[in-house]
Design goal:
Number of strands: 6
Low-confidence stretches: none
Largest sheet: 6 strands, antiparallel
Distance between the termini: 113 Å
Strand content: 25-35%
Order of helices and strands: HHEEEEEE
Structural class: alpha+beta
């Protein structure tokens, strides 16, 4: 008489159980990884949008300085407005090869300009819990054309990012 090992009836063997657990684990982990990557991509896009707005704000600041110089000389001597703009204390430190930093909005609605040895640019601008640093540089293209470069930098998950916005300003005609 020979003895046979009992065969499971309606039960799972150990290998079948391990395969089922592996399949279940993969079916849960895959969507979780995809969701995590989607969240990181959304946060990166949010920061890029914020940086774009901050960069454009820097361009608008320089444009406002130019416009204020024109209005200060209007209508008597608008020919000197461009020269006054280029030689103003807010713009001169930003002209090539200099770089200046525009800090956060002050309570009176102006931006804090950091130049010289008494400040430590770039300023930190905290938006959405992320620290951004904004710098402005003006590069003279011709006698009546200044290229304005506004660069906003930040780091997310130890990866450096930056957004650079460039515009050209000319004197009012």
């Amino acid at each position: 008489m020979s003895m046979k090992s009992p065969t499971p009836i309606g039960g799972f063997t150990l290998i079948e159980t391990m395969v089922a657990i592996a399949i279940l684990t993969l079916s849960i982990v895959g969507p979780m990884i995809a969701a995590n990557r989607a969240i990181v991509a959304a946060e990166t896009a949010r920061d890029q949008l914020s940086a774009s707005y901050l960069g454009q704000e820097g361009i608008e600041f320089v444009r406002a300085v130019r416009d204020n110089q024109f209005l200060a000389t209007y209508p008597a001597n608008t020919a000197n407005a461009w020269t006054n703009f280029l030689n103003s204390s807010l713009i001169t430190p930003c002209r090539s090869p200099g770089i200046c930093s525009l800090g956060p909005m002050q309570s009176n609605g102006t931006l804090l300009l950091c130049t010289g040895s008494n400040c430590t640019p770039p300023f930190s601008l905290v938006t959405n819990g992320t620290k951004f640093a904004r710098t402005i540089q003006l590069v003279g293209m011709t006698g009546t054309d200044e290229r304005v470069v506004s660069k906003v930098s930040w780091s997310f998950h130890s990866i450096p990012y930056s957004v650079t916005i460039t515009d050209h300003l000319t004197p009012w005609q």
